[in-house]
Design brief:
Radius of gyration: 23 Å
Strand content: 5-15%
Distance between the termini: 42 Å
Strand order of the largest sheet: 3-4-5
Number of strands: 5
Helix content: 10-25%
Length: 361
């Protein structure tokens, strides 16, 4: 990730003064005492990242109210899965680890519309100018970079060393994140107080733009109702393993993971619902381990097997033609593309009973 120079983080472009937000006093958002000539007094109570409700909410009440319950704000996806794998007795120690290692991914209004997210190094986007549509390469991929950006922009290599193609929506499509992911979705209005990213309706759904064509034999009810679009239309993606969190002797939190792997695997749908009715979906290994939080205590994930380690996934490397849709037999009867027991670590078999494919279709 590129580093931002100190001057780029704090410089305010003169053009900002002539904007709607520039006409406001600095103290309106950042606090402090604008009437004082004493530097220490003037900066007393100043906050680098203003509270969205207290600042943005003065004019953007509806949006900030939505954001307060969004996954970008609450990071509920983390706490949902941690609570499922842990226990009420162990959760205080798990949440201590969460606060030290996970909570920094939270983002505020300013960390998308004015600056890069703090967890991505910070730095103003454009001299304190407010960007109604944030630049994808400085905001979205600042946090969603190692997996989503590399998949979407074709920066990954397959296990044999050959380059994996960029998502067709990016090249040649030239589309940004915001062409598919709406304001309502990103602000949390479309799924208020969601417990995880796949709760509720598909946002977005492939068929929003690509109604199933009757001219394509495979686009029959038998496939569309039983198979997630990505099963046929994505290529290998990153799978991460065994994240362990610790603190240095100086108390600085850090984490370590095992080397990631590029793979494409089809598993059973463990979150089957009316919104995601398919039997077969793409699955991605998530970087959890039974002793991921061992630094903070013993047996903090006593219900580790409650959720699969090979989880439902929506890879961002969509292709019209892929190895698995090149012919019927490239998928049907081909054990190499399915999550079978031999591909799962022995210690994780029980956790993945709902996603493992016991009989190759």
């Amino acid at each position: 990730m590129p580093q931002v120079e100190a001057w780029a983080k704090v410089a305010v472009d003169a053009a900002f003064i002539d904007t709607t937000h520039g006409a406001m006093a600095c103290t309106d958002c950042h606090g402090g005492d604008g009437a004082s000539d004493d530097m220490d007094t003037a900066h007393g109570g100043v906050t680098r990242d203003p509270d969205p409700t207290a600042s943005c909410g003065k004019c953007h009440e509806g949006t900030t109210a939505d954001h307060a319950g969004s996954l970008h704000s609450t990071l509920a996806g983390y706490t949902t899965v941690l609570a499922a794998r842990s226990s009420p007795e162990a959760m205080p120690q798990v949440m201590e680890a969460y606060d030290n290692h996970c909570a920094s991914c939270h983002t505020s209004c300013g960390q998308c519309h004015v600056s890069r997210p703090t967890s991505a190094g910070g730095g103003l986007l454009s001299g304190h100018e407010f960007r109604a549509t944030p630049p994808m390469n400085l905001t979205c991929t600042g946090c969603h970079g190692s997996r989503i950006e590399n998949e979407y922009k074709g920066k990954n290599e397959s296990p044999d060393g050959s380059a994996l193609p960029a998502d067709v929506h990016y090249n040649p499509g030239g589309m940004s994140c915001f062409d598919c992911h709406s304001e309502g979705e990103l602000h949390g209005a479309d799924a208020p107080n969601a417990a995880h990213r796949y709760e509720g309706a598909q946002l977005p759904a492939c068929t929003d733009c690509h109604p199933a064509s009757e001219d394509v034999e495979q686009h029959t009810d038998a496939h569309l109702e039983r198979v997630q679009c990505q099963v046929c239309h994505t290529v290998a993606y990153k799978n991460c393993y065994s994240c362990h969190v610790q603190q240095s002797d100086e108390g600085v939190p850090y984490f370590r993971t095992e080397p990631s792997e590029m793979a494409f695997l089809i598993g059973r749908n463990a979150i089957q619902s009316s919104e995601r009715p398919w039997d077969y979906v793409t699955v991605r290994h998530v970087p959890i381990d039974r002793d991921s939080f061992a630094y903070y205590g013993d047996d903090l994930l006593p219900n580790f097997d409650a959720l699969p380690t090979w989880a439902f996934a929506t890879p961002h490397n969509v292709q019209r033609e892929t190895p698995q849709n090149s012919s019927c037999n490239a998928c049907h009867g081909n054990a190499a593309v399915f999550l079978t027991e031999d591909k799962i670590a022995a210690d994780e078999l029980e956790a993945n009973r709902n996603v493992v494919v016991a009989e190759i279709p």
